[in-house]
User: Fold these one by one.
Assistant:
Number 1:
Amino acid sequence: MGGKSSAPDRTLTSRRGFLTGVAAGTTVAAGVLAGRPAAAAESDPAITELPDWSRYLGDGVAVRPYGQPSQFEAHVVRRDVAWLTASPESSVSFTPLHELDGILTPNGLCFERHHAGIAEVDPNQHRLMINGLVDRPLVFTMDDIKRFPRENRVYFLECAANSGMEWRGAQLNGCQYTHGMVHSVMYTGVPLKRILEEAGLKTNAAWVMPEGADSSAMNRSIPLQKALDDCLVAFKMNGEALRPEQGYPLRLVVPGWEGNMWVKWLRRIEVGDEPWHTREETSKYTDLLENGQSRRFTWVMDAKSVITSPSPQAPLNHKKGMTVISGLAWSGRGTVSRVDVSLDGGRNWHSARLDGPVLPRAVSRFYYEFDWDGSDLLLQSRAMDDTGYVQPTKDELRAVRGVNSIYHNNGIQTWHVRSNGEVENVEVS
Ligand code: MTE
Ligand code: CO
């Protein structure tokens, strides 16, 4: 069944009548802000001609057993920057933040950061081992893990190197590249506390070291207090199984802390009485200061925000008039309490509107709507969290940290919007 032969044969007159009725109704409601006068419909083929999708049957059910976005959204993809890394196996792809809305990142668009490529793990062969300073070293299958009580939590994951290329000045044109090493997902998993309790912690236990099953065997030291507080051993993201890129079948969730600690393809957790000082917390993921000393164990991701639209990849096509500014804010210390937006490079600030769930250690969505007069804008956003922390300017950050490190750049981003609607990554001082 189906196909073009069964298309209804509508006459031009009935088609016209039907369409003008709809057009008139919708234009009255929307006309005040952004619509066009109904009269314009007479010469608009999008109104006067019936498109194919209104005339023929479409695909039936289950033609697309796993749904994909519309063909017209094919440009909404993760992207990488070829010159950034020596090989694609140890590299990063970026979330297309400028195309997204709300607070959840679709699974297929979550940025990826792999040190040894994507491990394709067979869940039936996968095991999680707990060893070290425990009463009973244990080995869990995936089925074993799914017999513990579960929790559902939305958290952001931000790589410590997000915005790292911007430390010395504005460089990459697009929030996908400047801020796209962040994603926000609802995880389903088991509190790590439950699993450690099952093994029984020795009295001198003070640290844990998660380890990945990929060929990089990624490992980090995490204080036991954090492990017992809110870490999850997660097997689902946004309701479905973790994607291979995100650590299928099991990953560690370390809310608010740098992405590197969220070990993917999690196969082992060792319990110890002191940190291990692994490669990823000595030569990497320490922040080199001007005086040659390094900041060590900089785990928490401080409050940060970015305007995702307009931005260099999402220019203002409508020129002047009613304009929606949209962006993301997050804090690894707690909940975003307020976001301000500036149109003039930080001289004047306006309170933005937070919309949608505002959750601790998840991203929050903000909006600021205004009537653009068409003149140049220097757009900025500034996040605050419930600890009282205020996102610093890039200059304030550099005064304290220098420019040697690529990690933990949470400075305020500036977008220059020109009168023709084009947007560029710039800095103001
Ligand atoms: N875990 C393993 N096993 N191997 C890795 O390469 N990369 C880490 C972390 N966990 C990594 C890993 C880094 S640096 C980051 S930022 C996050 O995973 C990225 O998570 P994502 O790929 O889900 O965005
Ligand atoms: Co990282």
Note: Residues 1-31 have pLDDT under 50 and may be disordered.
Number 2:
Amino acid sequence: MEENLKIPQHVSIIMDGNGRWATSHGKPRLFGHKEGAESLRACMQFAVEMQIKYLSIFAFSTENWGRPEEEIQGLWSLLLESINKETSYMIENHVRFRVVGNLEELPEYLRIAIHDAEEATAACTGSVLVVMLNYSGKWDIVQAANRFAEENPGKKMEWADMDRYLATAGIPDPDLLIRTSGEERISNYMLWQTAYTEFYFTDCLWPDFRKPEFRLALEAYSRRKRRFGKL
Ligand code: IPE
Ligand code: IPE
Ligand code: MG
């Protein structure tokens, strides 16, 4: 199988099912998010091993603000802890860290930690870990359209302009999008960028999604025939 594995340039993951995983273990939801952080670490290592250039992950959607304050604060603490813990690993493994989303709405201490980790890994030329944070596809398209209009008065937007003004500018569109936990929807994630992405859905809950499950997704991707509208 190994030799037939096609390695996508960009794998994106909607990490879903942390809450249900915690409930099934009789634990509070935050326990599931903590275990989910371990899955992310394992998947990042696998991406490095497999030389996947971009691994992006949906960490917090603009709609997730509708969750209880306690859960949101818990997610910020966990993110801060993960950044502090993983930055040296990323540098050692040449992983560049990037965060994409509406960062203005995040607490300042988190913005500073994100900025510092991005700076610390800016020269890394291996894989890129892109954390999609306070992100939504509709937010991205509207901010891109507004910025384009401001900077190009009277001009009509072309497809390529959209690519340049999206918050994900410079990152190739995902080749493979994985969603865990059995949900089969896009939940306002990268709407424009997934125009020709291959989708892979698994019932596996995110805290249980580790290297073997990631490998299965790559194997499924390798069997796909991407046609892009051609024959
Ligand atoms: C995904 O797991 C993590 C985030 C959205 C932050 P959930 O928290 O959505 O877990 P479920 O879907 O409730 O099980
Ligand atoms: C999508 O998961 C968002 C993230 C993984 C960050 P949700 O759990 O928020 O999605 P819905 O509400 O089930 O569509
Ligand atoms: Mg969910």
Note: The pocket of IPE (ligand 1) is lined by residues 15-20, 60, 64, 75, 181 (CB under 6 Å).
